[in-house]
Design goal:
By secondary structure, this protein is of the alpha+beta class. Helices cover 40% and strands 19% of the residues. Strands 1-2-8-4-6-9 form a 6-stranded antiparallel β-sheet, covered by helices on one side. A 3-stranded antiparallel β-sheet has the order 3-7-5, with no helix packed on it. It has a two-stranded antiparallel sheet with strand order 10-11. The chain is globular. Residues 149-252 form the HTH araC/xylS-type domain.
């Protein structure tokens, strides 16, 4: 299994966190379990992935917020190229109500690109990551210009405070002078989930980073440092978002791609 990552061009740096590619070099079956991370994305893949109901995923699709457990299975050799977007990108790039794609995806195989040709066909005819990045970057910039949907400054501040500063919802509402209902409406429309759920996912992700980096003496230290009520609360939340306890995650998961681990049975 090989993984690579690239930074976006400057024109997309406020919308795209990075481009990534995952390739298998063994004709095996792998089970992946996407983990909620507060971000949507776009994936171009070799028609090798199936959802937990056995339905083949589109060759090119846009996905929204992940909030519940799901499993994807790959069959045989595959190559997957992804665009990891910022939380607001469904609204600011594509002009979509973000909650319409929560725990769902949008088939982009019929989307048009330059010269009225299908975007998916353009990508299939390209052969190298640099070409895929060029096609997708041009497409995303085209969508941004078409919709002209800038991010609300207050919402941007809320995202920054919740995602990187560990602020509480009460602190965010007081700083922005927004009512609970107004903040809820803005998050549902622009991010796809409630601010409370987004905050919970951010705290879970912070705990997950600490687990990955092994920056603890014992597992209970993570729950304490991330301000969970107690150890059982931490384990319960971890299992809710990952399907495994923290100890099981360490033993049974292989994260070649962050937040897209292979799960060993």
């Amino acid at each position: 299994m090989h993984y690579r990552e690239w930074q976006p061009p400057a024109s997309l740096s406020g919308y795209v966190r990075y481009f990534w590619m995952l390739e298998s070099d063994q004709p095996e079956t792998f089970v992946f379990r996407p983990i909620p991370d507060g971000c949507p994305g776009l994936i171009f893949q070799s028609d090798s992935f199936f959802d937990q109901e056995g339905k083949k995923l589109p060759g090119l699709f846009l996905y929204g917020q992940t909030t519940r457990l799901n499993e994807l299975t790959s069959a045989g050799l595959f190559r997957t190229f992804g665009v990891y977007l910022y939380p607001h990108a469904l609204r600011t790039i594509f002009g979509l109500r973000a909650d319409e794609l929560t725990d769902s995806c949008l088939d982009l195989t019929l989307r048009r690109y330059r010269d009225d040709s299908a975007l998916h066909e353009q990508l299939k005819h390209a052969t190298a990551p640099a070409d895929w990045m060029k096609v997708l970057s041009d497409y995303l910039l085209q969508e941004i210009r078409r919709h002209e949907a800038s991010l609300d400054p207050g919402l941007h501040q809320a995202l920054e405070r919740l995602q990187w500063a560990g602020a509480s919802l009460r602190e965010v509402r007081e700083e922005l002078r927004l009512s609970e209902r107004t903040l809820e409406r803005k998050f549902k429309e622009h991010i796809g989930i409630s601010p409370k759920l987004f905050s919970r996912i951010c705290r879970f992700q912070s705990a997950l980073v600490q687990l990955r980096q092994q920056s603890f003496d014992k597992l209970s230290d993570i729950g304490y440092e991330q301000e969970y009520a107690d150890q059982s609360h931490f384990i319960r939340t971890f299992r809710e978002f990952s399907g495994l306890t923290p100890d099981e995650f360490r033993r049974r998961s292989a994260e070649v791609v962050e937040n897209f681990p292979i799960v060993r049975r």
